[in-house]
Amino acid sequence: MKNVILTAMLSTATFMSCEKGDNGNYIPGQELQLSDTDQQQIKRTNAFTANFFLEVTKDSHNGNNAFLSPFGISTAMAMVYNGAGGETKEAISKVFRFDQIGDAQLNTYYQTLIKGLPLVESQTELHIGNAIWHSQNVPVNPDFLKINEQFYDARVGKLDFSDPNAKDVVNNWVKEKTRSKIDKILESTSARDLAYLINAIYFKGMWEQKFDKKDTKKAAFHLPTGGTVQADFMHRRHSYGMLTMGPAGVLAIEIPYTNKRFSMLLIQPTDALGGNWSAVKLAEFIGALGSESAKFQPTLMNLYLPKFKFYYEQDLNDVLTQMGMGMAFQDDADFSNLSDKPAKISEVKHKAFIEVDEEGTEAAAVTSVGVEVTSTPPEVRFDRPFIFVIKENKSNLVLFIGKINNPVSGETAGR
């Protein structure tokens, strides 16, 4: 029995230098060109994102932060899906919402996103990298490799996994693709390994309206376990999009990145002080993004948001098994389209890094016009646990999702 190992990594930050042309002018981005099939699959991807995140974080009452790219994980799984067959393929398709789209359409869908997303905004750096390293001693189906090279732009290479140095080849690729934010994903390899399928996403964006560092002050953040910690709270008085969705139990604030092509959504229960997360219907909220019921209204406010920076690591075998994909990890798994040798997924691993601070651009400042304020604007403080989402705004595809339980905790390991 040979091991197939699936890995997804991501790194994101909220600051960057602007990209300009040779004459110093702004280079406009390119809007995603999505078919009706693509748009429907984005809704399914977002549905997976919400359900997967809730499954991963259902025990987060212990106070740990979380940060994931379910989109990155689904991209890696779509690559291995091309090698699956029978009941194994069916189980993967149900968990990842691949069951309502044909294989060719699914591969085209990911090809469109992998090629198109990095071009949406030139002043936001977004890179998506995929790779397959397979054993040089075991034949791998050439059609499997060809499909992933063509549609996922996957780098394909052979390695001798019995060589202790094989891990360094993979880790060096990881380090390059995440701009050194994640410098290692493998501790070792073994002769039993058949293939490593890896997805890496790197995002570096700047706020459209930066927070002034001189306004950052220490304040109390209320922990879910009781008590408080002192965190650095950024502050800005500005008109941000606000949405209160009563049926979903959500209050959300939208903070756009440069030129409004990408945004971060800050989400907390409508009963923020009570912290009643049980009433929050995250899947319903994410599913409604872009609809008439989820229109963000410009609202002048005093926004207080804690700075945070942390690493996150999670083994996903148990989570995916609980969601219905256990067959892929069993000895009788069917990956006959990947190799003639019996194979199973031995590990699905996710590593992540995020940093959020005040940085941004002053060149693309936008202010509200024609709004007369005669009273003190509302104060919105994210000083209790909150969820955050980073999305592309035309498609509303959620790229990243996380939860802050403690903004001063620098490293969080999953289960």
UniProtKB/TrEMBL annotation:
One of the record's GO molecular function terms:
serine-type endopeptidase inhibitor activity
User: Sorted alphabetically, which PROSITE patterns does this protein's record hold?
Assistant: PROKAR_LIPOPROTEIN, SERPIN
Q: Can you give the residue ranges of the Serpin domain? A: 50-407
Show the Pfam families listed in the entry: Serpin
| Gene Ontology cellular component list | extracellular space
In terms of InterPro entries, this protein maps to: Serpin_CS, Serpin_dom, Serpin_fam, Serpin_sf, Serpin_sf_1, Serpin_sf_2
- How is this protein named in the record? Serpin B
Q: Identify the domain of life.
A: Bacteria
Q: Which family does it belong to?
A: Belongs to the serpin family.
- CDD domains in the record: serpin_miropin-like (cd19588)
**Annotated organism of origin:** Sphingobacterium allocomposti
